[in-house]
Amino acid sequence: MAVIFLLYASIVIAGLLSIIKNSDIFNYLFKIISILLESIFSISEYLQGNSSDVIIITSLPYLNFDLFTEFKILIYAIFTVSLIFFLKFISDLFSLKRMTHLILSMLFQVTLSFIFFSETIPVILLVAVIMTILFYFIPLGSGRYFSLIEYGSFLESAYKPVSLNFNIYKFILRAILPMAPFALFFKILIPQVTVYLVILIYIAILLFIFMNTYKDKFEGNLRKIVVFSLIIIITISQQKFEGNVIGFILSILAIFFSFERLLSSFKDLKKEIQDNSLLYIIEKKKDDLDWLVENKLNFSIQRNGDFSESLLLKQIIIHFYLDEKDDLLILTKKYSESYGSNIRFVEQIKYFALYSTKNIKEKYKYLSRIFEMEKSEVELQQIYIEYSWVIFYETEEYDKIIQLLNEISYILSDEDKFILYYSLMRTGKEKYAQNLKNEINNFEQIEHEINMKKQFF
Hints:
Blueprint lengths: L1 H21 L1 H24 L19 H4 L1 H23 L3 H19 L3 H18 L6 H15 L9 H9 L2 H11 L5 H18 L4 H22 L6 H32 L1 H7 L4 H7 L13 H13 L3 H14 L4 H13 L4 H12 L10 H13 L3 H9 L7 H13 L3 H8 L5 H12 L3
Keywords: Membrane, Transmembrane, Transmembrane helix
């Protein structure tokens, strides 16, 4: 799985390198800005009395516009989306396993990359060499690669990006127009400065502002990761060693310091995930008694304080795992009175803390009410399994069992897979049921035990 994700990353890098290297629009815009600033510098020289002529360049550079080259990434995206739907249809038609579907997707994706991006082969070869070295020091099966995927899931649950409302007029007003007075100021302050140096300094300032104007630390670290990754990619793609030793050394330094800042941003992002991701606490800290006790707040004393939603949810989880039901009731009540976006998650916690020992009819009633609520940002996956078993014994709504267990199919035990198999058979989906049966160990024994239990309900 980790290898597949790294291969995906190499394809994306190959595409970025190809776009940066071959795009005429990027170079065209850069030349227009250079012409504009050269004209401003000429006016500045004239006003300062350093020149008797004002040179205004009115001819624009020629743009050899190739629709396929410039919009290659768009065409590539259209083909990719079409491929996803096509493979989904094939997978459903022939009942392919998820891993087979994923491998087929990768093969077709690599083929598309070869067609669209000329840099694909060298980049993949480079990634293959790096991966070989990496696997030597960090072998497959060590859990480190799967940990990367896990943290991606934790980040997704913790960080909710705000909707991007890009306004072209505000962008021109705030980012483009200030370039002229900025360039004029630099020319007056340092007459020897070149146009290209001014552009580089101005872009660097814009990037600095972009990296340091964020609403939370998640967004800040993600912005830094994007910027430093682009700096590394652009520096590598533009590097041409033609005897310029100083330029080559400077490029190495730029890549080195960008890597250093990139790793630092990843570490900060990891710490932010560990501190704020509810999913991380649920999956990684539920058995860490020292951490739970250290981070627990005594709500029997601090009942009247005002707390943020994230803190309340964090404390609800901690008190649940510590089995402190009195404080848990205080917390859940306080959350219900103050917030509502994650009320379904809070009710799931209450179910396992207070209702899991009730009779099956009461369980069904409570769980049905929970699943009528709007989904929360984070959920206890075990609640889907619990509800499926209750339905299996109480109401035999097999379509609902299939729907519930398909959402968490990757964590099902053999017993859970059996009731999914049983539900598929009872709803006429024999083909899918037989594929699932092959994944169940000791099928006959499990079938006998569950049928015996079912007789008591």
